[in-house]
Design a protein that fits this description.
With 356 residues, the chain is an alpha/beta fold. The protein contains 10 helices and 18 strands. The protein has 2 domains: 226 residues, Alpha-Beta Barrel (TIM Barrel); 114 residues, Beta Barrel (Elongation Factor Tu (Ef-tu), domain 3), CATH 2.40.30. Helix 4 crosses helix 5 and helix 6 packs across helix 7. It is elongated, with a radius of gyration of 24 Å. The mean pLDDT is 95. Pfam families: Ala_racemase_N.
Length: 356
């Protein structure tokens, strides 16, 4: 059976690298664990690093965090659905918000539970996912400050999450200016300007971050060491905290071109024949994983001899040329992963999750 492995030493290395970067610039940060889909063993590994702030987009995952360590500050990182207001107040110390009606419900529930619920207001800065429109921001904050049991601890934004709008110093300066305007207008102190996620990290590393931006929530860089501007590994970080291991279940030398009348495959694609490949063969291996678990585009073969052909629901087909590695049935083939691929694997009940 295919399995996903988390390397404890690599996770620790990346955490310590990021922690050093943020400490040097007096930036607070929390770890995003939504990739782990509530897997208790993996989340425990994160908390054991000394993490005191965990971000997630599923309240059930935050419940796992609180069960492991009730003292870890939990942050719900999308606008709360009305259906889960009670659970969010119970298990999330902080939530991201964009709707006044939702915040009123959080206030009422926090009163019922006799607790303070903290919120970060997300501002629309161009990517057109979640966020309050900037020209409505002052009136929005004015209403929120009237609500009991709600503490506004920050404002933030998300970039590159939907339309691919990249962060810039200019956009983050604008974000920081909104903090100053709100503090002056309402005579309040706002603790955090939450500048974003892994995509903003290159600005931190280059020293292009406005000083007022003092909070981040990081997942992808921690697990993949990725610079999303260059799509290369950040210097000094590990790219493969998580790796996929699959097993060869068949290997034969086969033609490179199918024979027979062609129609659309189960993915709705019709193959285009490269006539230069007629009469040519290669060793073709089948691995025990498929679309049910991951999109092949999210796999990065660790061996240069492996070429991904495609997959069906439960099997991945790869070409291995002349099979110079002498792959046999039962051998293991490993892959590095892209973020969304790892997310699919974590969410698959058919993939074992192990720790080394």
């Amino acid at each position: 059976m295919a399995y996903l492995k988390l390397y404890r030493d690599k996770l620790k290395h990346n955490f310590e690298h990021l922690n050093k970067v943020f400490k040097e610039q007096n930036i607070e940060w929390g770890v995003v664990t939504k990739l782990f889909c509530g897997n208790e063993d993996y989340i425990r590994e994160v908390i054991n690093l000394g993490v005191r702030e965990v971000h997630d987009s599923r309240v059930s995952n935050l419940k796992v965090v609180k069960n492991i360590d009730p003292d870890v500050q939990t942050v719900y990182i999308k606008p709360p659905p009305k259906k889960y207001i009670r659970e969010i107040v119970t298990y999330a110390d902080v939530s991201f918000n964009t709707e006044l009606e939702t915040i009123r419900l959080l206030s009422k529930e926090a009163e019922k539970q006799d607790r303070k619920h903290m919120i970060i207001i997300m501002i629309e800065m161009g990517d057109l996912r979640e966020g309050v429109m900037r020209d409505e921001l002052i009136d929005f904050y004015g209403e929120i400050f009237k609500l009991p049991n709600i503490e506004v601890i920050g404002l933030g934004t998300n970039l590159n999450c939907l339309h691919g709008v990249m962060p810039s110093s200019d956009k983050l300066i604008q974000l920081a200016l909104y903090k100053q305007i709100i503090e002056l207008k309402f005579n309040r102190t706002i603790r955090w300007v939450s500048g974003g996620t892994t995509v903003v990290l290159p600005l931190v590393l280059r020293g292009d971050l406005p000083e007022s931006v003092n909070h981040f929530r990081i997942g992808e860089a921690l697990y993949f060491g990725i610079d999303l501007f260059s799509n290369e590994t950040i210097e000094g970080m590990e790219p493969s905290v998580l790796e996929l291991y699959t097993q060869v279940i068949e290997i034969h030398e086969k033609p490179l071109v199918p024979s027979g009348e062609l129609a659309a495959n189960p993915q709705g694609e019709t193959m285009e024949i490269d006539e230069d490949l007629y009469g040519k063969t290669a060793f073709r291996a089948i691995l025990d994983i498929g679309y049910l678990d991951i999109q092949p585009d999210f796999l990065i073969p660790k061996s240069k001899d492996i070429e991904i052909v495609d997959a069906s629901s439960d099997m991945l087909v790869v070409n291995v040329g002349e099979n110079e590695s002498d792959l046999k049935v039962g051998d293991i083939v490993s892959f590095q992963l892209k973020y969304v691929g790892a997310l699919g694997l974590m969410n698959s009940n058919y993939i074992d999750k192990v720790i080394e």
